[in-house]
Every structure is written in structure tokens, then in C-alpha cells.
Design brief:
The protein is 30% helix and 27% strand. It has seven helices and twelve strands. The strands form two sheets. The protein has a nine-stranded mixed β-sheet with strand order 5-4-6-7-8-9-10-11-12. The chain has a three-stranded mixed β-sheet with strand order 1-3-2.
């Protein structure tokens, strides 16, 4: 005999109604929540709270921050979430002094532009001052310096822009330890040596070298310079090999040049 208790249908109906009511209430709450969220979303996007209030530029030393924001095309009042940051980034990176840029949206309606600038590797002397030369070889005509610069060498005679770019690329590979010891560089071309350059170092030594592979030719300068008396007249040649050439006074009183090999014969 089956002892299992049978619940009459009339006793089960109230429980089923209550269960259905709870389910309906949950669905209603869910629908209302989604509805109000959509309303809030629409109101937010139509309000000033979704607009750019301030632009902040970080890392701009050579380029005016106002110039960066102008080129970006982003301005206060623009919609914060519809900005084309990829296009703005590309426009900023077209500035000569900018190597790379990134754009981020922050809290409090702020757009932050972080830029990484190229290094000033040299200066070009002009009649009214000195123009910075970047490691890309580009000259910043709008950043004139009135006084004689001390943070990078001054270059003269580089009338060919491509040769200047090649030389600045070599300077960038040379490293600050040696570049900071260079005071002036002159393109001193001859018919036999069209890429010859003359350097005046801060320690008083004059160096002759070549633009191609300059970073390799000059890398031994600290060691070689330690063997030279800066007060002794002469020229240090650093090409495929290195030697110091000093003037020699002959018996008739005329000067001639004597050669002191430091690392072999020059080409």
C-alpha cells in the first residue's frame, strides 16, 4: 500500500500563484532596471558630462603643448567617447620633434596626451642664432637659440640635408659619452674625401674623420685622447685606422707634418 501523502490540487494553487508572482516581479524589476539604465545612458551622452573639459599634454619640452593639442584636432566640448584617438595620434606624430604619442581618456572629463620627443643631437649655426637638429636630421626652425649651446655640438657646412641626416644618425649611435665631448663639427670635404669632417673637441683636440661609419670610427676616442697632450699642436685622424699627426719644424725653419701612429696607418 502506498503511504505517500497526496496534496490536493486546491492546496497547491496558492503556492503556484505565489511562485509565478515572484517570477513576474523579478522580470519587472529587470525590465525596469534596463529601462532606467538606458535612460541614464541617453541623458549622460546628451549632457556636458560626456564632453571633453580639459586636455593635458605630458612630455613636450621642445614642442609647445598648445601646438600638440591644436594638431590633435581634439578640443573642449568634443564628445569624450567618440574621439578618433588613432587619427589624432597619427597627426601628432607628424610633428618633427615628436617620436611617438599616446592618447587616453581619464576621469573628470580629461584627455591626456603623452608624447615622446626626439633628442636634440646638434645645432646648426645661422646668422641670428642656433637651430636645433633632431636625431632624425630635421631642423627645428621655430626653436631658435640665441646663445651658444652647450648641450650638443654645433655643425657647420652641411648644405646637403641628406648628408646631415646621415651624420645625425651616426651621432645618435655614438652615445652621449662621446657626443658630449664634441664642441664643433665642420663638413670639410675635399675632392678625394667628399665626406670628410673636422671636429673640435671640448678637451682641445682636433679630429678628422668621415661621415660614413662615424660612430664606429670615433668609439675609441676616450682611450686615444688619453695618450695625447691637448696642448700639443696637431690633428688626430680617426678613419679606418687612427694616428696623430703633429707639425714638425725642419732645419730651414719651415713647418712640415709628422705622423705618430696610434693604431696603424690611415687609409
Amino acid at each position: 500500500m502506498n503511504d505517500e501523502k497526496v496534496v490536493p490540487m486546491e492546496d497547491r494553487i496558492p503556492a503556484l500563484k505565489e511562485q509565478r508572482k515572484r517570477r513576474a516581479n523579478r522580470r519587472l524589476i529587470l525590465y525596469l532596471s534596463v529601462f532606467f539604465l538606458l535612460i541614464l545612458f541617453v541623458v549622460y551622452f546628451q549632457s556636458p558630462l560626456s564632453q571633453v573639459d580639459k586636455l593635458q599634454v605630458n612630455g613636450a619640452s621642445y614642442t609647445e603643448p598648445e601646438r600638440v593639442t591644436q594638431v590633435s584636432g581634439i578640443a573642449p566640448g568634443d564628445h569624450l567617447w567618440t574621439l578618433d584617438t588613432t587619427e589624432a595620434k597619427s597627426r601628432i606624430e607628424e610633428l618633427p620633434a615628436v617620436a611617438s604619442a599616446s592618447i587616453s581618456r581619464g576621469i573628470f572629463r580629461t584627455v591626456t596626451i603623452d608624447v615622446e620627443e626626439r633628442n636634440r643631437i646638434a645645432y646648426v649655426r645661422q646668422s641670428e642664432g642656433y637651430l636645433p637638429v633632431l636625431d632624425s636630421g630635421d631642423i627645428l626652425h621655430e626653436e631658435r637659440v640665441d646663445h651658444s649651446p652647450s648641450d650638443a655640438p654645433v655643425v657647420y657646412g652641411f648644405t646637403d640635408p641628406e648628408l646631415l641626416k646621415e651624420f645625425t644618425a651616426e651621432l645618435a649611435e655614438t652615445g652621449p659619452g662621446i657626443v658630449n665631448r664634441i664642441s664643433e663639427v665642420t663638413h670639410d670635404a675635399t675632392e678625394e674625401r667628399p665626406f670628410q669632417i673636422r671636429l673640435f673637441m671640448n678637451d682641445g683636440i682636433e679630429v678628422r674623420s668621415q661621415v660614413p661609419d662615424f660612430s664606429e670610427r670615433i668609439q675609441d676616442y676616450p682611450t686615444v685622447a688619453a695618450e695625447i697632450d691637448p696642448s700639443e699642436p696637431g690633428v688626430l685622424f680617426m678613419n679606418q685606422s687612427t694616428y696623430f699627426e703633429a707639425p714638425v719644424v725642419e732645419d730651414d725653419g719651415e713647418d712640415s707634418e709628422g705622423e705618430s701612429a696610434l693604431e696603424g696607418e690611415s687609409d
